[in-house]
């Protein structure tokens, strides 16, 4: 998003005084462009945002300026100006201006429509109403008029207008509840609390006299941190993130609250994390710009050659014919004649790049976008959500993706947590066993546990092991204490809508699942106040005094509460990561700890999210002393967090182990299979998540990104630059040491002679990298980013944890900067917007976390599994079609245009055209446009099932094999070869040919008709050869275009047009008389055969000697079809009642499904091996290695000796 305002200078700190607009205005926070707030009319703070690019005044000049930055548009404008000069123009101006205006208009309308919706969105946000306290009275103001230092009132379910310091609320102790889905993608409730000194400021009269001043950090993008101090009544009070309400949050379950505006508009943390909207262009677009410049240079060279020829001819020959061929007025020398001839030929030969190319490209892209929108296999019936292509410019880029950056929560997972297993006092619960004491499979499970004894149980909760409920009913003290801890140690809020109907609002779905589990097993969390927690334990209400909450953070990785029971006993309950808690247990827990660790390893191996539970009894005297020290540390002006951390660490030692929990974060359907298939397509997947490390790693195992078969998983957790650099260095050394032990000395020394990139690409084994957000901040610094990228790209999987939205974008930008690879980012929350905007392609999941990601995306759908079809089917086909379209287009236009070049040597370099101007105008618009459009929209090399079955088919797009500079020059060479034959074969035959009546056949118009007819037939046959998938539309367009050519040709040479326009259509009956001659048809046939046969021979030899993978797959299809036909014949001919043949067929089908899934095989069927796939494999692999060695970043590891082709 663009900022609506910019500050004059960078802030070092921010000073905000409540109810003092004049004081705050002098700092010019978020001043509008030009220094004047357009809405307020004064110099002041603006809370408006601006994402639009144009307004009514600037649209036309700015949009035209942007469009003429395209090389092609500038080129065609230049040609149009030349055609308006009569001395040099051989063609009418309308041949260029009509298509140019059409292209500019279509693009302008599309840009205007997009910007209209941006304006509409901006106005909707900026014009939201907010209650602002002005002069002691609450007034309705638009968001854009809210200023820094204002006090505003929020009501339940309202969006927060700016970043606010919470002053007071309707809830006790200044609490309020917010939902932060727009910020971090989490839909769970979070609690914020006003500082005690402002809690009583609950009415407008008190707030109107509030004149406190806040000194805090300058605007930044850190969503989870805030540091500042409130100065009021000669006292100072520390402020933290727990006191802040950020823009984008929604107030929930709170009747009202008041807040002081600290950051407004572009300074808010939401806007600081919103990446700037970037104009995305495909690699083919960039290549076409380069090719247009090259073609223009080639055009200039041809113009110079023909101009020199004209000057020489006029000087040597033309001067002798001045009586019959006088020079034009103003031409006094052969040199000046050559100069004018140069410009004339520039106009004539400009059709090597016709403007219809760009119109056709946009039409093809639009067609591909509609195919995505109409794909029923990407439609989610449950949510009634179809796939949507929100842009039409990036479709072929979908076929070239090498890196996917994915969010975790809501993208890979459903964000639904289920209490699955637990370990209590060394006994594991949750495994269901059959009668033989074997683990029961899912389909063999009995009914879930019956919780009907508990009227407060959640009916949606299911658990399959009845022994845990039996332990509760039998009074097992350890099990009771286990669930008591789960019902007390949390920050969940409870809402009782009606008697017995509880609704839990949890900060994380993990907490919600644990508290719900305790609820169903008889320990029901009923309510809380800031000082008490009420739990109904097996039907009896018990109220605990809440003495302290030791909250969770990423460093502690644990949470504790200290409560006083009704009997007066003080106890600390703690839950946290096993790596942290097991070290803090009392030594008497050693045996129990060992058993529990085994259970934890078992749960983690199943991809479950685990927590360890422990408790500790505290003496009254110790607690009082510790509580006093805690109070002093909480009010310390400096290093407050360090003091608190030391006190927390002190009390959380020598605890007694209770057990462990295991929660399943349900993956979306098809996620592991999708990741496996995309990996086989050589697409590298990085997970960038705001979740903690343990959670992300567990999901990595669940979705098969991480496996137990991996050589090693590197975890980078350093807190300083030196620590991070050392950990990355050790990871690279381990990978290279493994390569040294696997590869022989010669090959390794050979690798060492190349760059580090090549060494890392050739490593043996599979590795993964897990890095935390604080470590990633150092790894992304300028002096370490290359080391991080080299290490990460050498790993098969990369998981970045606890990353901010901006860090997600920085990781994507890093890969874009150093790797010549197409990137795709996919996410579902507002915290993914920056990443989606930064990547080459952004995909939004329309899930449970709002629509911000969808609105910022290029493509959207409802489930991650659809990404497989988007890339491997739609993306691959779009890339294939666009490449074939461009190759053919350049071929046919060079074949068409270069005839003028050869003709120039035989017409005195006079800039006379071979074809009449109507043929020149209609060639690219009518005669050859529709067949190539049909191929560009509908063509496919293999069916969609094969595209999914053989992921290796995706690799040519990643390697950019189908359209590059080499392929371009091959097309140009074929076009020039065709033009030579197209001109010289008819020219040679016509030199001595006669008509049926004995008259000379050769004349200008007959020659033009013959060459034009040969050209249309040759290019039509060529597109027939290029078309791999024939539809009725292809047939209609190809044969229809030929029919249209002959119909128009005969019409233009008819008597009727001559009578109506005698000056325009003078050659009456020429086409009819020319095409009535057998010699002409023999000439056309000979030209066609000579032009096409080399192409057919080359393709036949290539198919036989060096087939591509798609050729191999097509051949496999034919073999399978023949085998099926033979099986059908055998079944008809064999005995009808054979049980054996029926079983054999059934067996083949069942095993075939396993093979077709690609889980247990390489591309090694009998048909493929007989068709020699090895050359196809080797040239793709060699090209990939070559590309990797040229890149500046490290690539993904692969064994050089592995010559087989994985599918």
From TrEMBL:
Q: Which Gene3D superfamilies match?
A: Calcium-transporting ATPase, cytoplasmic domain N, Calcium-transporting ATPase, cytoplasmic transduction domain A, HAD superfamily/HAD-like
Q: Where in the cell is it found?
A: Endomembrane system; Membrane
A Pfam family recorded for this sequence: PhoLip_ATPase_C
Annotated binding of ATP, by residue? 407-409, 511, 552, 575, 609, 689-691, 802, 808, 831-832
Name the residues that span the membrane. 91-109, 291-313, 333-359, 885-906, 918-938, 968-990, 1002-1025, 1032-1052, 1080-1101
Which CDD domains does the annotation name? P-type_ATPase_APLT_Dnf-like
- Which reactions does this protein catalyse? ATP + H2O + phospholipidSide 1 = ADP + phosphate + phospholipidSide 2
> Where does the record place the region Disordered?
1182-1207
The residues covered by the P-type ATPase N-terminal domain are 46-97
GO biological process, alphabetically ordered: Golgi organization; phospholipid translocation
The source's superkingdom equals: Eukaryota
Cite the EC number.
Answer: 7.6.2.1
Residues at which Mg(2+) binds: 407, 409, 828, 832
Q: Which family does it belong to?
A: Belongs to the cation transport ATPase (P-type) (TC 3.A.3) family. Type IV subfamily.
Report the protein name in the record: Phospholipid-transporting ATPase
Organism this protein belongs to: Hirundo rustica rustica
């Amino acid at each position: 998003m663009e900022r609506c305002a910019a500050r004059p200078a960078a802030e070092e700190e921010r000073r905000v005084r409540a109810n003092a607009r004049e004081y705050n205005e002098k700092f010019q926070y978020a001043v509008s462009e030009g220094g004047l707030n357009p809405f307020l009319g004064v110099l002041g703070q603006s809370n408006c945002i601006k994402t639009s690019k144009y307004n009514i005044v600037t649209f036309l000049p700015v949009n035209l300026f942007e469009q003429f930055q395209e090389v092609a548009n500038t080129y065609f404008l230049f040609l149009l100006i030349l055609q308006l000069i009569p001395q040099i123009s051989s063609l009418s101006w309308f041949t260029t201006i009509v298509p140019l205006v059409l292209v500019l208009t279509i693009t302008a309308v599309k840009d205007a429509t997009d910007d209209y919706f941006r304006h509409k969105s901006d106005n909707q946000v900026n014009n939201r109403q907010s209650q602002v306290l002005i002069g002691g009275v609450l007034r309705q103001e638009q968001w854009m008029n809210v200023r820094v230092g204002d006090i505003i009132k929020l009501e339940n379910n309202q969006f927060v207008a700016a970043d606010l310091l919470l002053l007071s609320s309707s809830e006790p102790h200044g609490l309020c509840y917010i939902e932060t889905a727009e910020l971090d993608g989490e839909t769970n409730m979070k609690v914020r609390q006003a500082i005690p000194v402002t809690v009583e400021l609950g009415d407008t009269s008190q707030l109107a006299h509030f004149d406190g001043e806040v000194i805090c950090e300058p605007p930044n993008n850190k969503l989870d941190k805030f540091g500042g101090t409130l100065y009021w009544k000669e006292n100072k009070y520390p402020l933290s993130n727990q006191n802040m309400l950020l823009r984008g949050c929604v107030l929930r379950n709170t009747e009202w609250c008041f807040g002081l505006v600290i950051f407004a508009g572009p300074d808010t943390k939401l806007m600081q994390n919103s990446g700037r909207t970037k104009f995305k262009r495909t690699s083919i677009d960039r290549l076409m710009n380069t090719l247009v410049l090259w073609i223009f240079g080639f055009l200039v060279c041809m113009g110079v050659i023909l101009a020199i020829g004209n000057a020489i001819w006029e000087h040597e020959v033309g001067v002798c014919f001045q009586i019959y061929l006088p020079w034009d007025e103003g031409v006094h020398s052969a040199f000046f004649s050559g100069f004018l001839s140069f410009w004339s030929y520039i106009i004539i030969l400009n059709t090597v790049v016709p403007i219809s190319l760009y119109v056709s490209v946009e039409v093809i892209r639009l067609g591909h976008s509609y195919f995505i929108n109409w794909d029923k296999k990407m439609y989610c019936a449950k949510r009634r959500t179809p796939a949507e292509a929100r842009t039409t410019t990036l479709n072929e880029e979908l076929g070239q993706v090498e890196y996917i950056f994915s969010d975790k929560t809501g993208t890979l997972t459903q964000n639904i947590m289920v209490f699955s297993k637990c370990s209590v006092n060394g006994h594991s619960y949750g495994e269901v066993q059959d009668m033989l004491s074997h683990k029961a499979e899912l389909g063999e499970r009995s009914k879930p546990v019956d919780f009907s004894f508990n009227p407060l149980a959640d009916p949606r909760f299911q658990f399959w092991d009845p022994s845990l409920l039996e332990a509760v009913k039998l009074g097992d003290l350890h099990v009771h204490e286990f669930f008591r801890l789960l019902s007390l140690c949390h920050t969940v809020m409870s809402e009782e809508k009606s008697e017995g109907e509880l609704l839990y609002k949890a900060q994380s779905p993990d907490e919600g699942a644990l508290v719900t589990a305790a609820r169903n097993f008889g320990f029901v969390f009923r309510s809380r106040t800031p000082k008490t927690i009420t739990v109904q334990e097996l039907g009896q209400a018990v109220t605990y005094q809440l003495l302290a909450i030791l909250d969770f953070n990423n460093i502690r990785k644990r949470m504790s509460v200290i409560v006083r029971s009704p009997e007066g006993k003080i106890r600390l309950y703690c839950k946290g990561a096993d790596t942290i808690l097991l070290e803090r247990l009392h030594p008497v827990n050693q045996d129990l700890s060992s058993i529990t660790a085994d259970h934890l390893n078992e749960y983690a191996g199943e991809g479950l999210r685990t927590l360890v539970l422990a408790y500790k009894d505290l003496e009254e005297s110790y607690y009082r002393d510790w509580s006093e020290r805690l109070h002093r540390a909480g009010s310390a002006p400096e290093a407050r967090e360090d003091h608190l951390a030391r006190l927390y660490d002190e009390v959380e030692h020598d605890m007694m182990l209770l057990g462990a929990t295991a929660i399943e974060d349900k993956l979306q359907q098809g996620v592991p299979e999708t990741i496996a298939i995309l990996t086989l397509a050589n697409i590298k997947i990085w997970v960038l998540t705001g979740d903690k490390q343990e959670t992300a790693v567990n999901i990595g195992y669940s979705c098969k990104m991480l496996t137990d078969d991996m050589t090693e998983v590197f975890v980078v957790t350093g807190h300083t630059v030196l620590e991070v650099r050392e950990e990355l260095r050790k990871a690279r050394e381990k990978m290279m040491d493994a390569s040294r032990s696997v590869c022989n000395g010669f090959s390794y020394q050979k690798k060492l002679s190349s760059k580090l990139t090549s060494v890392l690409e050739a490593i043996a084994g599979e590795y993964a990298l897990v890095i935390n957000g604080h470590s990633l901040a150092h790894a992304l610094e300028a002096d370490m980013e290359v080391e991080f990228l080299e290490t990460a790209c050498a790993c098969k999987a990369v998981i970045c944890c606890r990353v901010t939205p901006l860090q997600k974008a920085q990781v994507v930008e890093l890969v874009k900067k150093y790797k010549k690879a197409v990137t795709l980012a996919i996410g579902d929350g507002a915290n993914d917007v920056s990443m989606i905007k930064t990547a080459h392609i952004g995909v939004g999941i329309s899930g449970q976390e709002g629509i911000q990601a969808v609105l910022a995306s290029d493509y959207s759908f409802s489930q991650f599994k659809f990404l497989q079809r988007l890339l491997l089917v739609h993306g691959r086909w779009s890339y294939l079609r666009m490449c074939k379209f461009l190759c053919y287009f350049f071929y046919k236009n060079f074949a068409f245009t270069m005839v003028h070049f050869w003709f120039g040597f035989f017409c005195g370099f006079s800039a006379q055209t071979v074809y009449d101007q109507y043929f020149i105008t209609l060639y690219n618009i009518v005669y050859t446009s529709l067949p190539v459009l049909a191929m560009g929209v509908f063509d496919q090399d293999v069916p969609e099932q094969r595209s999914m079955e053989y992921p290796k088919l995706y690799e040519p797009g990643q390697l950019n094999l189908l359209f590059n500079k080499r392929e371009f020059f091959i097309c140009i060479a074929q076009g020039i070869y065709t033009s030579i034959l197209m001109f010289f074969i008819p020219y040679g035959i016509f030199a001595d040919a006669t008509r049926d009546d004995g008259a000379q056949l050769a004349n200008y118009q007959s020659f033009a008709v013959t060459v034009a007819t040969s050209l249309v037939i040759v290019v039509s046959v060529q597109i027939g050869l290029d078309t791999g998938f024939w539809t009725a539309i292809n047939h209609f367009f190809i044969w229809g275009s030929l029919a249209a050519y002959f119909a128009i040709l005969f019409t233009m040479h008819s008597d009727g047009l001559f009578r109506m326009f005698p000056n325009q259509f003078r050659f009456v009956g020429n086409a009819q008389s020319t095409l009535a001659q057998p010699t002409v048809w023999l000439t056309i046939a000979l030209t066609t055969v000579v032009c096409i046969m080399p192409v057919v021979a080359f393709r036949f030899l290539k198919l036989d000697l060096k087939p591509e993978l798609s050729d191999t797959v097509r051949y496999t299809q034919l073999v399978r079809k023949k085998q099926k036909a033979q099986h059908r014949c055998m079944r008809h001919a064999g005995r009808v009642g054979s049980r054996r043949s029926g079983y054999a067929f059934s067996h083949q089908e069942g095993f075939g499904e396993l093979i077709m899934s690609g889980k247990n095989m390489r591309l090694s069927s009998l048909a493929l091996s007989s068709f020699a796939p090895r050359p196809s494999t080797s040239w793709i692999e060699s090209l990939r290695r070559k590309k990797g060695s040229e890149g500046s970043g490290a690539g993904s590891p692969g064994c050089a000796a592995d010559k087989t082709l994985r599918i």
